[in-house]
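Need residues for this backbone.
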């Protein structure tokens, strides 16, 4: 009898040692491929940029080339420029702050980040045992034909203890690979949240400057309408005096009607621009806002440091998101590989067993059991191989998406740099053109009033002057947008003093 107890104890000890070794193996390596960041499919230098040299006195323009360093400042990095420093217009800064608090797209992005964090927590939980407290009372009634003399036909069996339910021993790293994939997906979602933040700041700025442009255009059209009303009245008087012709009158009337149509058009555009701004900010603009700055490129920072193309890999959230997705796809390959190996799981119970409640916790009522289970896939119609091929194909797609995001970023920065290199000269030339058309209009009006020219020349001069004014407003707006695009495309706009105030964009401590 004693030998039997010793043998049972030895077997119990052997099982516990085996279980301990199996648990230690949980910390082993996974079958995922070693991750290697793909080479950036771009040049490590920005392309040469055009340089326009104007000599307005002589009326000449010369085209040459310059480097990106000659166009942008190199004293700082974009990482040093929060949006509060970049945007100088106090009203715009107030609107952006409101948008970061109230915009629904940003709130949706935050909710998605929280969902991804929770999903990562769920996946990590699969790596640990599921232990629960079990208490049961099983009552059995036996038929008369099965009764033994002296045995009660109705008996109870009380059971209580802690149970271990189907704990998978992750010997080949399948659960760890799935947890790593979920973690990288969470980080990708966090990067997407940063990208939403950058896009929101950029969109609010663009909508604000568009509204400012429509306001200035509406003022210009209103002023032009009044001027053309005066011109029409002059032509009408000259016609009554027999000096002007029907052609002159109809030409003057066509200019007046065009200005009235433009007034209605830009009043509509201004209203729509205001509505779009309210949607982006996410709340009615009922509060008193600061006075806006002048509508020039100086409303934003003049010089933006471009840095090197390689900086995009660490600054642009969309590139970082694509790389996180690639790392997640890489981890899924490990999970698909691990599915080919045996699946070992454990169930067990440690507790007490008694026929009566008062004997449930007495000495000798304690017992335990452990049930290892091994499952080895033999035939599944090729599903495992197909799943591995699927994981590898998804990984190749993620590589291409990562490389494309880098190429897209390089193109966006290069386009914005080209705009930064040329908009200044274009604005300078357009200002000179506007002044020339203004003088031409004055001379044309004078010649018409003196009877030297007909109204056609004055009409052409009025149209040219209006178009040059309208073109200058639009050009300044486009130059502002280009500078905002450059700041955004370089990855600026998400690091600021209130970065962590509203959005949980930090990594869990376990993965830092």
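Answer:
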């Amino acid at each position: 009898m004693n030998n039997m107890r010793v043998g049972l104890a030895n077997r119990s000890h052997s099982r516990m040692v085996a279980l301990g070794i199996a648990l230690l193996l949980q910390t082993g390596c996974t079958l995922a491929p070693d991750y290697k960041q793909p080479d950036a499919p771009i040049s490590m230098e920005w392309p040469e940029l055009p340089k326009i040299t104007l000599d307005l006195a002589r009326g000449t323009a010369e085209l040459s080339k310059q480097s990106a360093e000659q166009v942008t400042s190199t004293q700082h990095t974009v990482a040093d420029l929060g949006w509060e420093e970049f945007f100088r217009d106090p009203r715009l800064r107030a609107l952006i702050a409101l948008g970061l608090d109230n915009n629904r797209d940003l709130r949706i992005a935050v909710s998605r980040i929280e969902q991804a964090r929770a999903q990562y927590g769920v996946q990590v939980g699969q790596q640990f045992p599921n232990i629960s407290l079990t208490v049961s009372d099983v009552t059995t009634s036996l038929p008369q034909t099965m009764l033994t003399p002296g045995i009660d036909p109705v008996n109870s069996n009380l059971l209580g203890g802690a149970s271990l339910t189907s704990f998978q021993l992750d010997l080949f790293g399948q659960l760890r690979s799935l947890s790593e994939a979920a973690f990288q997906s969470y980080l990708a979602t966090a990067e997407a949240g940063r990208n939403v933040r950058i896009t929101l700041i950029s969109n609010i700025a663009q909508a604000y400057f568009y509204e400012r442009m429509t306001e200035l255009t509406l003022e210009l059209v209103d002023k032009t309408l009044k001027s053309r009303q005066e011109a029409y009245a002059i032509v009408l008087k000259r016609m009554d005096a027999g000096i002007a012709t029907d052609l002159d009158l109809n030409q003057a009337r066509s200019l007046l009607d065009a200005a009235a149509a433009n007034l209605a058009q830009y009043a509509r555009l201004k209203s729509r621009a205001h509505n779009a701004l309210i949607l982006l900010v996410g709340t009615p603009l009922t509060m008193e806002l600061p006075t806006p700055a002048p509508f020039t490129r100086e409303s934003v920072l003049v010089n933006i440091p471009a840095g090197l193309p390689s900086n995009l890999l660490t600054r642009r959230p969309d590139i970082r998101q694509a790389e996180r997705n690639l790392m997640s796809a890489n981890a899924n390959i490990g999970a698909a590989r691990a599915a080919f190996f045996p699946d070992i799981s454990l169930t067990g119970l440690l507790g007490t067993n008694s026929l009566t409640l008062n004997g449930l916790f007495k000495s000798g009522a304690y017992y335990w059991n452990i049930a290892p289970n091994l499952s080895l896939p033999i035939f599944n119609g090729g599903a495992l191989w197909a799943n591995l091929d699927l994981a590898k194909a998804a990984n190749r797609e993620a590589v291409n998406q990562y490389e494309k995001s880098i190429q897209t970023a390089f193109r966006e920065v290069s386009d914005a740099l080209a705009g930064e290199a040329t908009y200044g000269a274009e604005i300078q030339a357009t200002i000179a053109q506007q002044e020339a058309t203004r003088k031409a209009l004055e001379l044309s009006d004078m010649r018409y009033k003196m009877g030297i020219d007909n109204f056609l020349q004055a009409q052409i001069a009025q149209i040219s002057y209006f178009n040059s004014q309208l073109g200058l407003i639009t050009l300044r707006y486009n130059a502002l947008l280009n500078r905002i695009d450059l700041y955004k495309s370089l990855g600026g706009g998400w690091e600021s003093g209130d970065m962590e105030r509203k959005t949980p964009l930090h990594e869990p401590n376990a993965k830092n």
